[in-house]
Amino acid sequence: MSRPASLPKRSCGLSRLLSLLVAGTALAMLDTADAHATSCADLARSALPDATFTTVETVPAGSWRPPQDQLTHIMSAPGMNVAGHPTQAPNPAFCRVAITLHPSSDSRIRTEVWLPLKGWNGRLLGVGNFGWAGSLMYYGMATGVAEGYAVASTDTGHDSSTPEGQGGRFTLGHPEKMVDYAYRADHLMTVAAKALIRNFYGRKAAHAYWIGCSLGGLEGLIEARRYPDDYDGIVAGAPPNPIVNFNAEQLWAGWMSYHNPALRVSRDKFHLLNTAVMNACASPVGRKQGFVDEPDRCTFTPEQLRCRGKDTANCLTANEVQAANNIYQGPLDPQTHQVIFPGPAKGSEDGFSADGRPFPVALDLFRYAAFQNPDWDWTTLKWDTDIQEATRRVGPLLHVDDNLTPFFRHGGRLLMYIGWNDGHNPEQLAGYYQAVQRNAGPVGADAVRLIVIPGMGHCYGGAACDTFSKLGAIDDWVSHKQAPEQIIAARVDNGQVVRTRPLCAWPKVARYDGRGNMDDAGSFGCVTPE
């Protein structure tokens, strides 16, 4: 709450008394919100189990500079800004608490909790990690604290600045670190953050939210499933679930083209295919802005580009057609003939690769986490037994089933989002979304939403309007019971908003009215496809 600019100078009778009472109440609430039960320095004396304090300091306003690491270019992108800002806002003054959690003798979970010195809004924000990267998500933390949130993040128990912390190497021979990575680090971070909030402000957080994409999105689902009381609202972007099946799909095109070099396809040919798909399936808006609006309604097939004579730059050979169809389909279990995980959606062909080489992150899951063998030969992958074995080993830690009912009964709200140009096909996530709703029954009808974003790649980017306030959406939902049926998103270039578009709750889609400015969200409406 902001302090009133001034109290009324004149009034009379009852109206004056009421205005003074209201103003006094507002000031009292402000004093309570900004008063601290203990000092920042004294937080180091907090009794946190299995925790070592490494830094407790006051960070002056505007002085925070996030460390530059391998994720800087990703996490600083406007589309990753949790509050939907085109640029990073300067930090207010906050109390920075860095601790190391060690729930086992082999655990070393770096965690930070940032507490605004003034203007705390009474809420906690947990910021999810990204991929295998063992880094704290400082940009998300900085945005959250600037919005008045107490924020927390963790490296999930491994440090990406060291060789052993990169990829999945940290899991080799370290089952406790794998547990930390899978779920324990996020939960213990949350418990510690809530305790520090109570100690610092003298009261608990009114609400707790989680926001993350990629692994951070999966972490959000894991939190909802394992610890339904940790968070009141979760925003899970592009959650790779089930992760073994998803990583198998990421290996599929490389494995296929390794074993049959005739199925290798150049980037130029994939670009040719993408151009044909765009011309056939994109709306006038999509063609202008650079994406297929509704890939699930696209009927174009690679056969339509098949060479009628010799191979040229303007057609696909029979082998190239087969390779494209195989990628769209995704890998099959040779025993059941069921798709293990569907391939990417149409319109994302510029991101395809069939060069006989593995996708590194997917390879790491199998050789390190699942099979505990850095020399595991991905070319020998068996699409039935190896997938089953990897699922048996990793699934109990990282797989999230469709029963999130305890989270919803607690009052939790779940917002999932994903881009049509993500390597993860949104139709798969839509199937999971429907299963979660069915499982939850009436309690889940107003507790979960899915947003599918045309043109967006993995978590951000592409030609999409990818910048929107995840924080605003989840807070409106939890605090004000406003389910996110439509969210206005922006396309940001060089810190400036260049166009806007509504994001619609699935299965609705944004359709252009045919008259207005294509770059203005007001020219679109959310409708249910026929």
Could you please describe the fold and organization of this structure?
With 530 residues, the chain is of the alpha/beta class. Among the domains are: 1-35; 42-205, no CATH class; 264-396, no CATH class. The protein is 34% helix and 16% strand. The chain has helices at 13-34, 72-75, 138-146, 175-201, 215-226, 243-259, 267-281, 284-289, 318-329, 360-370, 385-398, 405-409, 426-440, 470-480; strands spanning 51-59, 94-101, 109-116, 123-127, 150-154, 207-213, 233-237, 413-419, 448-453, 486-493, 496-504, 509-512, 524-527. The strands form 3 sheets. The chain has a 9-stranded mixed beta sheet with strand order 1-2-3-5-4-6-7-8-9, with helices on both faces. Strands 10-11 form a two-stranded antiparallel ribbon. A two-stranded antiparallel ribbon has the order 12-13. Helix 4 crosses helix 5 and helix 6 (243-259) runs antiparallel to helix 11 (385-398). The radius of gyration is 25 Å and the shape is globular. 47% of the residues are buried.
